[in-house]
Write a structure and sequence with these properties.
By secondary structure, the protein is α+β, with helices and mostly antiparallel strands. The chain has one domain. The chain is about 30% helix and about 35% strand. The chain has a 5-stranded antiparallel beta sheet.
Length: about 90
Amino acid sequence: MQMLYNSENFAVVEFEVPTSTPELDAEASGLTRGGYEIVDKFKRKEIYIEGALAESFKQGVEALIEGSPTIEDIDAYIERFSSLMLQPVVLH
């Protein structure tokens, strides 16, 4: 788990879970499975994305970073995913 982004409005955490098969050792093969947890602090909602959506999110962030974005630019990009956030943030 690694915090990638934390602003006044959003937080993004990356999760990498090593995969393992009987034939391959996960550490030796470098295979991982994981995704991103995105939290909208204002709406108090979150989403966990993985697979193709997570890859699309990652590529969008990488393209955005190439242009030296402001915090507002990054927040605007992340806000595109807020309509998918249905899970309420619960602290325990």
